[in-house]
Amino acid sequence: MNVLVIEDDEKLGAQICEHLRGMKLTPTWIKDGDEAREAELGIYALVMLDLMLPGTYGLDLLKLFRKRSDVPILILSARDDTADKVRGLKLGADDYVTKPFWPEELTARVSARLRRPTMHREENSIVVGALEIAPGARTLKVSGQPVELTKVEFEILLHLARRSGSAVSRAALVDSALDPDRAGTERTLDVHVSRLRKKLGDASGQVATVWGIGYRLERGGDE
Fold it and tell me: What is the full DSSP assignment across 4-16?
């Protein structure tokens, strides 16, 4: 699998690439934020993104990448402030690793992310645990049984399924699922999520709350 490393520190970037090769992965190393803007994200299984870059700032790259792709993104940063971590996760990062880090920690984070694919497609459907979502037909099956959802409930679930295993911010879900003409708010979103969970029955625990951020669709288990 190909991994995109965006890191301007020569020594650290070389070490990261060496560890990735040791995991039988193929790294591509970019050292400049402006150059990274043109990266073809579709060929990568994972992006490792430093925040303090020459050229385009890391969080601006994160926002740009999220508009173009659902590729998993792991932030690398020397900034240990909780607010920075929350902001990165709200903008769509899948994980946040603080520098300096042990090589074993980094490889474990990479392995965990690659074991948890963003989505699993089967006959044009997205299958996550007990849920089978057909985007084209706009249908849902839970443990093989059809379940009817409203338009908003389906959009919320579909957005979460496309980032399964990753936290999705309330703001992103409001933008993607709620009607802007009806002044959708995060509080309104929470009501729709509550109704969605009730319709999922025994699979309701797959829609997990990520406190301070939003929601995450899990493969199974309780919240």
Answer: EEE---HHHHHHH
